[in-house]
C-alpha cells in the first residue's frame, strides 16, 4: 500500500471519529430539550435513554455477522450518514412515536458505526506498524467538545432542536460521504511480524474476557464522570450551578490531551505500561473526588480522571484486535472488535445507575469508590496488553505493510 493511501485512509477515519463525537454530543447534551419537545415524562425518560445503548449493542453484534460478507469500510460508509439523519429526525419529529423510531435507528446505526470505525482503526494500526489508535479517539474527543459547544450555543440561543441540528448535519453529511472514499480495509501486519495466518475463525470469549472487563470498567468510570460530575460538585461539594458545569468540560479537555499524546507513550513504553499508568491515574482521580474537602480538589480529581481513563478504551480495542488477528487473520480481528464493542454499552448502561443506587443507599462520596475499585482491577489485566502498540507486536522495527484486500490480492 502506498504511503499516500495510508495517510488518506488515516485522515478519513480520523474525520469519521470526529463526526461521531459531534453527533453523539449533540444528542446527549440536549436530552432536556428532547424531553420537553416530545413531552417525555421523567418516568419514561430512562427507558428512552437505555434503548440507545441496548440497540447499539445489537448493532455491534449484527456488524460482526455483516463484515464476514462485506468490508467494514462499506458498513461505516453507510452507518455514519444514517446516524446523522437519525439525529436530524430526533430534532424535527412531531410525536413520541417518531422520536422513539429515530432513537432506535440512531442506536442501531451507532453500534454498527462504532464497531466498523474501530475495526478500520485496528487495521490501519497494523498497516502502520506502530500505535496510532489513540489519535483516532482523540479526534472523537475533539468532536465531542465541538458538539457540546454547539449544543450550548443552541440552548443559550433558545433554538429549536431542528434548527440546531440541521446545519450541522448539512455540513457533516456530505463531508463524511466524501471522506469515505479513502477508507482502507483489512490491512495485514507489517512484514516480518508473526500472526495473521488464521482462517478467519472467531476468537474464544475466554481470550477476550480481560479486555471485555477493562472496556466495561472504563465506561463505568466514563459514565460516572459524564452523568454525575455536575451533581456531585453542586450537591456534595457545594459549588454554584455555573461552577458545576466546569468539571465535565475539564474532563473532556484532559481526555483530548491524553489521547493526543498517548500514542507517543505507547510507542516509547508499550501499551501495558500506558494502560497500567492510566488505570492508576484514574483511580487516584476517583479517590481525590471521593475525599475532596472542597470544589478545587473535586475539580482536580476529575482532571486526573480524564487523563487516566482516556487511554484505556483505544488500547483495549487495539489489543483485542491484535489477539483476533493472531487467531484468525483480519476476519478474526474484526470479530474481536465487534464483540468487545458490546461491552462499551454494557459499561455505559451500568455506570450511572450503579453510582445512583450506591449514592442513595450509602453516600455519593462512597459511590465514587466503586468505579475507583473497578478501575484498579484493570491494573491486574495490564499484562494482557503486552505486545500491542510500540513497534508492532513483539518489538520488530517498523516495516511497510503488506496490505491484503478482501479478495486476497495485494493492493
Automatic annotation (TrEMBL):
Keyword hit for Membrane: yes
Topology versus the membrane: Multi-pass membrane protein
Cellular component terms (Gene Ontology): membrane
Transmembrane segments: 12-31, 43-67, 74-93, 132-153, 159-179, 200-220, 273-296, 302-325, 337-356
Assigned keywords, A-Z: Membrane, Transmembrane, Transmembrane helix
Domain of life: Bacteria
Localization, UniProt: Membrane
Gene3D superfamilies tied to this protein: MFS general substrate transporter like domains
Name of protein: MFS transporter
Organism: Streptomyces odorifer
Amino acid at each position: 500500500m502506498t504511503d499516500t493511501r495510508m495517510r488518506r485512509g488515516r485522515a478519513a477515519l480520523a474525520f469519521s471519529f470526529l463526526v461521531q463525537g459531534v453527533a453523539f454530543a449533540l444528542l446527549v447534551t440536549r436530552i432536556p430539550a428532547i424531553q420537553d419537545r416530545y413531552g417525555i415524562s421523567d418516568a419514561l425518560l430512562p427507558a428512552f435513554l437505555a434503548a440507545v445503548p441496548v440497540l447499539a449493542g445489537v448493532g455491534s453484534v449484527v456488524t460482526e455477522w455483516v463484515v464476514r460478507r462485506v468490508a467494514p469500510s462499506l458498513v461505516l460508509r453507510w452507518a455514519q450518514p444514517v446516524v446523522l439523519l437519525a439525529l436530524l429526525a430526533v430534532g424535527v419529529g412531531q410525536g413520541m412515536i417518531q422520536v422513539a423510531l429515530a432513537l432506535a435507528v440512531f442506536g442501531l446505526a451507532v453500534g454498527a458505526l462504532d464497531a466498523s470505525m474501530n475495526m478500520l482503526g485496528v487495521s490501519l494500526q497494523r498497516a502502520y506498524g506502530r500505535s496510532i489508535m489513540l489519535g483516532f479517539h482523540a479526534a472523537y474527543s475533539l468532536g465531542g467538545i465541538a458538539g457540546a459547544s454547539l449544543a450550548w450555543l443552541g440552548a443559550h440561543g433558545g433554538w429549536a432542536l431542528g434548527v440546531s441540528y440541521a446545519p450541522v448535519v448539512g455540513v457533516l453529511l456530505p463531508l463524511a460521504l466524501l471522506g469515505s472514499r479513502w477508507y482502507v480495509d483489512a490491512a495485514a501486519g507489517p512484514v516480518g511480524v508473526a500472526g495473521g495466518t488464521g482462517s478467519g475463525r472467531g476468537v474464544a470469549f475466554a481470550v477476550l474476557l480481560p479486555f471485555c472487563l477493562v472496556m466495561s470498567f472504563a465506561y463505568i468510570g466514563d459514565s460516572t464522570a459524564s452523568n454525575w460530575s455536575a451533581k456531585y460538585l453542586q450537591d456534595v461539594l457545594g459549588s454554584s450551578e455555573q461552577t458545576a458545569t466546569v468539571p465535565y468540560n475539564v474532563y473532556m479537555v484532559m481526555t483530548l490531551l491524553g489521547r493526543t499524546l498517548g500514542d507517543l507513550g505507547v510507542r516509547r513504553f508499550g501499551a501495558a505500561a500506558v494502560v497500567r499508568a492510566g488505570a492508576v491515574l484514574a483511580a487516584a482521580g476517583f479517590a481525590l473526588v471521593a475525599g475532596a474537602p472542597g470544589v478545587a480538589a473535586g475539580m482536580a480529581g476529575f482532571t486526573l480522571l480524564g487523563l487516566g481513563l482516556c487511554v484505556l478504551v483505544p488500547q483495549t480495542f487495539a489489543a483485542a484486535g491484535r489477539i483476533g488477528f493472531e487467531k484468525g487473520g483480519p476476519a478474526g480481528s474484526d470479530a474481536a472488535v465487534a464483540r468487545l464493542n458490546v461491552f462499551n454499552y454494557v459499561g455505559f448502561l451500568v455506570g450511572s445507575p450503579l453510582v445512583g443506587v450506591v449514592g442513595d443507599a450509602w453516600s455519593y462520596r462512597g459511590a465514587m469508590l466503586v468505579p475507583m475499585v473497578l478501575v484498579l482491577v484493570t491494573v491486574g489485566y495490564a499484562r494482557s496488553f503486552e505486545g500491542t502498540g510500540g513497534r508492532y507486536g513483539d518489538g520488530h522495527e517498523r516495516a511497510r505493510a503488506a496490505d491484503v484486500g478482501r479478495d486476497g490480492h495485494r493492493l
